[in-house]
Amino acid sequence: MNLRWTSVAWSIVYLLLLLSFATPFSFITIFVMLLPGVILYTTLSLRSFLVHIAVVWAVAFLLLSNPAILLLAVFFMIPVIVMGHLYKTKASAFKVVAMGTGTLLAEFLLVFLGITVIFGFNLASSIEDTLNTMTTLMENMADSGLIATELVWSPEVTQQLSNLAARMTPFTMIVCSLMLAAITHLIARPTLNSLGHAVPSFPPLRDWRLPRSLIWYYLVTVLLTLFGGPALMDGFIGTILLNLSPMLNFLFMIQAASFFFFLAYHKKWNPAIPVLLIIVMLFIPPLKIVGILDIAAPLREMITRSRR
């Protein structure tokens, strides 16, 4: 009985999230859109899950009278099934988040490819039009004395920003996919545990070790960026490097954070110290070199060996 009412409650939450797409709150609710479906898929049989989903979709369609809501629901249902299935099979947290991220990323790419090919959508032009609208608004505000004239973008800056944003689309898709999957897991795991479904958690951050191959990717990226020349950087390879570089920097910062917690654990420091170091690293990005060294050199072995 408790499970039945819990399922009904999560179905209502799912319905409200779908309805939120018709409101400005969709920019917030989208980050938890996968959550109700994952909970329902993991806790229910396939037949019961399909019944709940069908009812929610039907009610949402009747209330909004917009078929686009069903397309969005189908889009998010695919990663829901992937992550829910992995939860049922007791897969590791890393695998759940990785597969959820990969599924979302594949969908984003397919949708982007579809609207580009079928509708002739040009992302760079669309971004430039948006920036031009903002520039016009800023010019009007500058003429009225509301903002300084120096803050108004020139047409050249607008075009450069639009081209950069368009080239950074893969990175944006990866970040969005990772955020959706990670937020879903962070909320779903304790929720499922409270419902009697044991879900593996991430290992302690201090134990995270990223593959050493990242060092080679980083070296290649740096060398090509420094010596590739304008022709290379403006082409396809340059676009790859433009997206790969921030991803590698992010991973190295994660590894540095892991090392900070590892060091604090073995040195028995106050737990607040690694947190403060991470905050400092956010303002001083070159500190990510700690993560690079942690991957490339046996720093942890040296620390544990010195304690013996």
UniProtKB/TrEMBL annotation:
What is the protein name stated in its UniProt record? DUF2232 domain-containing protein
Keywords from UniProt, A to Z, are: Membrane, Transmembrane, Transmembrane helix
Bilayer-crossing residues are 12-39, 45-64, 69-87, 99-124, 168-188, 215-236, 248-266, 272-299
Give the species.
Answer: Paenibacillus lentus
InterPro entries in the record: DUF2232 (IPR018710)
PANTHER family to which the protein is assigned, alphabetical:
DUF2232 DOMAIN-CONTAINING PROTEIN (PTHR41324:SF1), MEMBRANE PROTEIN-RELATED (PTHR41324)
State whether keyword Transmembrane helix applies.
Answer: yes
Could you name the domain of life of the organism this protein comes from? Bacteria
